[in-house]
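Notes from hallway chat w/ T.B., transcribed later so I don't forget. T.B. wanted the structure written out for a chain they're using in a teaching module, and asked if we could keep both sequence and C-alpha cells in one place. Agreed to drop them here.
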Amino acid sequence: MCTNAPEKAALRSELLAARGLLSSENVRKAEVVLARRALELPELSGARTVAAYVSVGREPGTRALLDALRAGGVRVLLPVLMTDNDLDWAGYEGAERLVRAGRGLLEPEGERLGTEAVLNADAVLLPGLAVDGRGVRLGRGGGSYDRVLARLARAGAAPALTVLLYDHEVVARVPEEPHDHPVQAVVTPSGVRRFGTRPGSPGPGREAPPGP
C-alpha cells in the first residue's frame, strides 16, 4: 500500500490546476525555449536514439524538440499506449504522421516496435508534473512509465533520464516510493539542472550555461 498516495494526489491536483491557468501563448513560447535548452544536453543532442513523447494540452511542449532531434539525425521513438497501460513504441516520422488516440494523446501511425524497443534508447524523455532536488519525479499516476523504468532496470539499461517542466514545477519535495527512479536532469525555460554525474555533464546539481 502506498502511504504517500494522498500526498501525491494533492500535489498532482495543485500542479495540474496551475498548468490550467497557462495561456496557449505561454505554452507556445515555453516550448521554443525548452527545445533550445534541451539541446544543450549532449545526452539528448548527441544520442543515436531518444525515447520521447508528444506533449498535449498544457504540458511543457515537446514538439519543437522532437523535430529538432529528428532533423539532427537522432532516431526518435514515441510511445503507443496499450490496453493494459503498458507502452509499445514506434518511430517518429514527422507531425503529419501523428494520429489521435485515446485519452487525448497523439501517437505515431508507423510500425509498432514492441515494448522492448525502449531498451535501445540512449536517452529517455519522461513526462512529469514535478521534480525535486533529488531528481525524484512526480508522474500523472497512470503507471505506464513505472513499467518502462522497471523494464530498463531489469535489462541493465541505463539511458539518461530527463524531464521537461515549467520553472515552478521544480519543487522542494516529491513524495517518494520504493519503485521510483530518479531522473538525471530537468529542463525548464530557465535552464538545465542535473541530479547525477554522467559523462560530459557539469556535475550534480549544476546548471548548464544559459543559451543565446
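Follow-up for T.B.: The chain has one domain: 5-194. Might be a good example for the class.
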